[in-house]
Specification:
Layout: H1 2-26, H2 30-55, H3 59-84
Length: about 90
């Protein structure tokens, strides 16, 4: 039963990532593309955690934590660049 639920979740996450890639490519302006990129990295974290559950390994959870930290810092840097024009004052 858990195996079926994991496959359904993996499929839905991959579908959500495909829709995020579409929004990233066809976004009408920069904030929409930034939100699509932010949502894409959150979906990639969910995908990695689900793969870790499916394969029963702990290394995927550490990779998801690393991606979460890098994604947060990257999003903050891009937002700061868009708002102020520079990252470091």
């Amino acid at each position: 039963m858990l195996d079926t639920a994991l496959w359904i979740c993996l499929t839905l996450i991959v579908l959500a990532m495909a829709l995020n890639v579409y929004r990233l490519a066809a976004g009408p302006d920069v904030p929409d593309r930034l939100l699509a990129l932010d949502t894409l990295y959150v979906n990639s974290i969910a995908l990695i955690v689900l793969l870790g559950l499916r394969l029963n390994t702990k290394i995927y959870f550490e990779a998801a934590l690393l991606i979460a930290m890098l994604g947060f810092v990257g999003t903050m840097a891009i937002c700061r660049y868009l708002l102020r024009g520079d990252i470091i004052e």
